[in-house]
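Q: Got a minute? One more chain.
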Amino acid sequence: MGEAITIRQAEGKWVVRSGGAILGETSAALELLEDGQDPVIYFPRGDVAMAFLDRTDKVTTCPHKGEASHYSIVNKSSTSENVAWSYEDPVEQASAIRDHLAFHQRDGVLVEKI
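A: Always. Here it is, folded:
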């Protein structure tokens, strides 16, 4: 149970791309660091084209962040299943990531600092 998380402002401007198109762009990204895991960038929902995301039935639970809802990216040429997630009611220590989304970098999805 010694795992800890740190959430801080991510420096610079970040984009998330799907199929080469920019799905989100922000200078207000958060970086979540968790013991034993790669850093994860969280985008404010207001900076993501939510019209391309469909909520799925998948829900996962993390004792350090809470319950995560998952989303697929849907565009006219493809669907990337469960590549985004959001802690809509996170535990107190992760409250900063409320109203943010993170993305798996797979199925043509890329998160990068520009």
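A: The mean pLDDT is 93.
Q: Perfect, thanks.
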